[in-house]
Amino acid sequence: MKQDRQAMLFGLGAVALWSTVATAFKVALGYMSPLELMWLASLVSWALIGVLVARQGLAGQALRHGWRTAAWAGLMNPVAYYLLLFGAYDRLPGQEAMALNYTWALAMALLAVPILGQRLTRIDVLAGLIAYSGVWVIATRGAIFDVAFADPLGVGLALASTLIWALYWLLNARDHRPPLVAQWQNFSVGVPVLTLLLLAGPGFQWHGWAGLSAGIYVGLFEMGIAFVLWQLAVHRVSRTAKVSNLIFLSPPVSLLLLFFIVGEPILPSTLVGLVLILGGLGLQQWQKSSVPAAQESS
Length: 298
Known about the structure:
Distance between the termini: 20 Å
Shape: globular
Number of strands: 0
Number of helices: 14
């Protein structure tokens, strides 16, 4: 019970930080390009996780083993995933990019069919139909019978990021590296790649202390501390479903922060679409937790 309480506190801390992500992204992208933000945030996260790896005595393992996996995993996360995600946030209202990003769990269920040979259940299909109908509502901004999306490229970037994120976790199903080591090695691969892209492109410009602070916040909290808190929660809780359900608290808080801090009006289409997406995710989550729950009660 004590470990479960600790896990819930860690999980709530991670969700609280993730609730600020959409606002932090929009504020930071108001000062710099997605590539600049990606480079700065990744550098900060790499340094933070490197300190944690050293403090836990994992530096030797991090330096010697796991680089073959990190070579491709680092290109997926952080490079491809966050470049696509930041590109979506740069083009779409934060509320839309945030809502679309929540479909990654459903994308993972669909991709698990060809990659892991898993079968879709009727609940999976129903959850997907419900959630992706929410995507359609958000993408069309409520004009559901109009195939002309408000920003097709932004929507495409957001959905592509969910595919990359889902594919990343599926391919890492057999990754035996400790989570902190894996994260640090991935960023060790990603930061040099992002540096080269930045030097070959616009370069990094000074955007003032406000821009620097926003970029550091993204790297420190969204990519760093929130990841650590969530890992602690998942590893300490008796049943993963107990903390995984906490993620449903994040979208409403994110919408309120976007409204009060960024000044985004909350679109009715976003609310309807988000309810459908969370409804699909909730249905899928219920399916996952019903079997363990039944076993525990027997």
